[in-house]
Amino acid sequence: FPFCTFWSMLSLYLLPAKNGEEPTMQFLLEVVDILTNYIRKTFDRSTKVLDFHHPHQLLEGIEGFNLELSDQPESLEQILVDCRDTLKYGVRTGHPRFFNQLSSGLDIIGLAGEWLTSTANTNMFTYEIAPVFVLMEQLTLKKMREIVGWPGGEGDGIFSPGGAISNMYSVMVARYKYYPEVKTKGMSAAPRLILFTSEHSHYSIKKAGAALGFGVENVILLKCDERGRVIPADLEAKIIDAKQKGYVPLFVNATAGSTVYGAFDPINEIADLCEKYNMWLHVDGAWGGGLLMSRKHRHKLSGIERANSVTWNPHKMMGVPLQCSAILVREKGLLQGCNQMCAGYLFQPDKQYDVTYDTGDKAIQCGRHVDIFKFWLMWKAKGTSGFEQHINKCLELSEYLYTKIKNREGYEMVFQGEPQHTNVCFWYLPPSLRGMPDCPERRERLHKVAPKIKAMMMESGTTMVGYQPQGDKVNFFRMVVSNPAATKSDIDFLIEEIERLGQDL
Amino acid sequence: FPFCTFWSMLSLYLLPAKNGEEPTMQFLLEVVDILTNYIRKTFDRSTKVLDFHHPHQLLEGIEGFNLELSDQPESLEQILVDCRDTLKYGVRTGHPRFFNQLSSGLDIIGLAGEWLTSTANTNMFTYEIAPVFVLMEQLTLKKMREIVGWPGGEGDGIFSPGGAISNMYSVMVARYKYYPEVKTKGMSAAPRLILFTSEHSHYSIKKAGAALGFGVENVILLKCDERGRVIPADLEAKIIDAKQKGYVPLFVNATAGSTVYGAFDPINEIADLCEKYNMWLHVDGAWGGGLLMSRKHRHKLSGIERANSVTWNPHKMMGVPLQCSAILVREKGLLQGCNQMCAGYLFQPDKQYDVTYDTGDKAIQCGRHVDIFKFWLMWKAKGTSGFEQHINKCLELSEYLYTKIKNREGYEMVFQGEPQHTNVCFWYLPPSLRGMPDCPERRERLHKVAPKIKAMMMESGTTMVGYQPQGDKVNFFRMVVSNPAATKSDIDFLIEEIERLGQDL
């Protein structure tokens, strides 16, 4: 194919078209070239983290980047341009200075795993069409349960499309365990059921409460200490209060690594109360579960082996590409019992292989994306020990940040003492606010500092870090480290950048 | 790097490691080489669809393929071997003779889109970290709503992790529309609510009924005609019956393209009843929605513009790689109202851009995988017209199959008349069963034919097609065509193969 003819070709000349093999290979290699260039630049600190534009700018079309869909096909050449533009105006979440989310970094092995997964393009719901992936999932879940500390790695589990859905599974399974008739008869078959979770916990417990028919009024928020950890006495008081009202306390969520403070609830004390009052204990370790891989840090989750279910997102602290979240359940059979509908047209009992490997009926999904392979491959490539090193390194970096700013002029920590996870929460005070006594005006001005610095950061594209208010605390920065590319120099850069952008506010 | 040293290297020498760029590029190109070889072979009819092994065989480790995870890292060389083995023992869902699922085929543009998506490795929940993808999703959903026929493409929607979750959204949103207080107070705030769906519909409506607290008893199954289409008179009778019992009919699911028969429920007649009785109308077009792209076939969904919500999975009939499912809602604001929790730490109102583009609070998920890009890119590459051609071609192929076997010796159609979708349902009768009068013994023997043929097919690895019983009908084959690689010769091959394997049963 002469070059000019080739790239003006349409996609219909690619495989499965006749003689489509050569153009297909040429096209894919061109795409890979775009991707590898992107990867190269992502790890290069002289590249910006993002090239910010407002929604209306992108919608109007910048330099010919047209997002609108049309009736007629585009040439392959234009498709490649679209790919380049998509990456150009996106955010480099693998950049060493991207600290904005709990999920960050770009693991090369995980990436290769994801490329393979999309090439295999199959579905987890039966062994028939995903034999290798189904077994990988089973073995990996068992390994995770062993690490949680359940004897022999016994129990059950499934990979779900994210921590919120994993937490939703935990509530469903708890309800099924105590009130199996709800599956058939609905919530009216049960008394008024109460779920408990801390005011610092992830909003997905409330979302689950709303979706599953409990009602958010019946999701009781527990008080936390100044470090964001639940106060067990408050839990017990609220359990007793609920019982006095005639309600039935069903479920407690203990957070292992809260979103903002990175706090770990005292699982053992909560477990004692769950035993005392016969309640389901779920541990939301979406963010903190990764610390189980570290002999140095896993004590922060001590008691997790007493949980009835655990959410653990390898796509957060363990650096696995999105999406990769596991819900683990200690008692076997509950997931299946809770969700199965035995649709004969999907799960034929008379197949030639052992159909207990068909996992589809455990899920609330039917088709289910293959989330396991990238994780399995990373585990092979790093070993358990590699994950441990990664986690220890991230925690060291956040300790470095904490030590650097705790007594630095212009910084105030949101809570005192060393962070439990990699979350470091702080206010930056521009010189104009320093020395001003605490008063409504100061609070109001301080509230605007982080958003302004963030906006300037994004416009200059140099780094990204999150901010938010929490309870009665005005906007503060929440720094997190999960990116394997980050080093001390990037932490230093972040601080310099905050000071550069914020000094005149 | 000398070759032998290089491949015995560990992944920790890849980026972001110092001097990691060269080994990273070398490693990724090696992976791409494995993948492109796989793709080449997938489209080559002399390659098997699968190389079947039982679970215990794979678990024991075949030719050194070890699925177990260990503490110590593997070499890059071994990682590449793992990748090859994973593909070797998997199923080629893009093979021209893979007909096993509603999702099949391997679209090269979609694949490139997925490779890019995983390289970008971001999350849909805010514009901040996925500016381009968020806008693509918005524009594509609008286009889909226009195609559904809602004036000006108005309304709302979101991509979810599959049709079952999309259907679950529809039930949640319907409940929120009629009984918004359930979000706060739980199901006890509503009367006994009834959901209706046909006995041929997808089991996800029942799963949603169980999960969301309605109870499967309150999911009433409607009778179908012999073609698998719901009988509207049965719906009305059951609505009246429910009302007489004091229950409240809330929601009707009309299936557009049922899983087994490919039947399209009469949407207009159902819509009339929904209007008459003030109920929510959902159309589950997970499988049949794609036909909206074809001027020739879209009449099968006529009335869909009267629906309150629609599920439509581009990952099925439109050949988009898994996962890609949309839930469309006609009334704006409901999705947000139903699901939002306004977590200040996730969705800061004081950002520098228009935060109405932050879609996270509409979802039951928090992090959400980028499912849009591959679909958007395919639409760019094919145009609306390209999807239309693909759909028409698949329906022509199934018509070819239907015409070929309807009067062929040894075949019996499960229902009479031309299929509405690409589903062709049939029994193959081995010579030993032909001419035998209908009796329990014949039924019992016929029930075992499809599973036996399927088992032999999988063991010989030549092709794959699904089978199942339905109601009182014993196991039959369900052929579906969504694979763009399939041609008439592959249909011929399937029939020959069934006869070759089944003749002596």
TrEMBL record, chains A, B:
<comment type="function">
    <text>Catalyzes the synthesis of the inhibitory neurotransmitter gamma-aminobutyric acid (GABA) with pyridoxal 5'-phosphate as cofactor.</text>
</comment>
<dbReference type="InterPro" id="IPR015424">
    <property type="entry name" value="PyrdxlP-dep_Trfase"/>
</dbReference>
<dbReference type="InterPro" id="IPR015421">
    <property type="entry name" value="PyrdxlP-dep_Trfase_major"/>
</dbReference>
<comment type="subunit">
    <text>Homodimer.</text>
</comment>
<keyword id="KW-0732">Signal</keyword>
<dbReference type="GO" id="GO:0048786">
    <property type="term" value="C:presynaptic active zone"/>
</dbReference>
<comment type="similarity">
    <text>Belongs to the group II decarboxylase family.</text>
</comment>
<feature type="signal peptide">
    <location>
        <begin position="1"/>
        <end position="20"/>
    </location>
</feature>
<dbReference type="InterPro" id="IPR021115">
    <property type="entry name" value="Pyridoxal-P_BS"/>
</dbReference>
<dbReference type="GO" id="GO:0009449">
    <property type="term" value="P:gamma-aminobutyric acid biosynthetic process"/>
</dbReference>
<dbReference type="GO" id="GO:0005737">
    <property type="term" value="C:cytoplasm"/>
</dbReference>
<keyword id="KW-0210">Decarboxylase</keyword>
<dbReference type="GO" id="GO:0004351">
    <property type="term" value="F:glutamate decarboxylase activity"/>
</dbReference>
<feature type="modified residue" description="N6-(pyridoxal phosphate)lysine">
    <location>
        <position position="316"/>
    </location>
</feature>
<dbReference type="InterPro" id="IPR002129">
    <property type="entry name" value="PyrdxlP-dep_de-COase"/>
</dbReference>
<keyword id="KW-0597">Phosphoprotein</keyword>
<keyword id="KW-0530">Neurotransmitter biosynthesis</keyword>
<dbReference type="Pfam" id="PF00282">
    <property type="entry name" value="Pyridoxal_deC"/>
</dbReference>
<keyword id="KW-0456">Lyase</keyword>
<protein>
    <recommendedName>
        <fullName>Glutamate decarboxylase 1</fullName>
        <ecNumber>4.1.1.15</ecNumber>
    </recommendedName>
</protein>
<keyword id="KW-0663">Pyridoxal phosphate</keyword>
<dbReference type="GO" id="GO:0030170">
    <property type="term" value="F:pyridoxal phosphate binding"/>
</dbReference>
